[in-house]
Amino acid sequence: MAGTVNIALARHPESSAPALSRVDARVLRTSEGVLEVAYTVEGDLDYVCLPEARPPRVGDRLWEHTCFEIFIARTGLRGYHEFNFAPSGEWAAYEFADYRQAAPGVAETFAPQIVVHHTEGRFELEAVLQLTRLSSDHANAKLSLAVAAVIEDQGGALSYWALKHPPGKPDFHHADAFMLTLQ
Length: 183
Prior knowledge:
The protein is mainly β. The chain has a single domain, classed as Immunoglobulin-like (Sandwich). The protein has strands spanning 3-11, 20-29, 34-43, 57-58, 67-74, 80-85, 90-98, 101-102, 113-119, 122-130, 143-152, 158-162, 180-182. Strands 1, 2, 3, 4, 5, 6, 7, 8, 9, 10, 11, 12 and 13 form a 13-stranded mixed sheet that branches. A hairpin with a 5-residue loop joins strand 5 (67-74) and strand 6 (80-85). 32% of the residues are buried.
């Protein structure tokens, strides 16, 4: 059940990010029902908007700026959860019954642990989620994940990064984006 997966995220072909050399993610699922995801951004980070750290709290519309995202579905089911993690420490959790159909009842009980590391030319954000907070079945179920990032540059332009981009505009919710399977 436990295992680590390292993935390189690809930039959406319609977005530009000349200051970045790469965006990667590492996903670890433990046998205790914990999901850890770490994102690494490398390049000239002087051109990237990284908000100042603040105490963790629920944020809104985090995808409009630099944020890191993971979508979690139990394989074979239409519903899924979306988590957004901002470099500031803000986070958001959403539940969907089907493609972009919001479901009621998302609560702050999903609160992830977020840790940020920033050095010259490298930024890392690590988030830890308790899968049992999604449902008791998530801890041991086969999961399909979409792993993504939105990076804002100093001019306000956004670049979109994902394991796989479906055709058309960036859409992390699209079924084709759920490319990573965890047993």
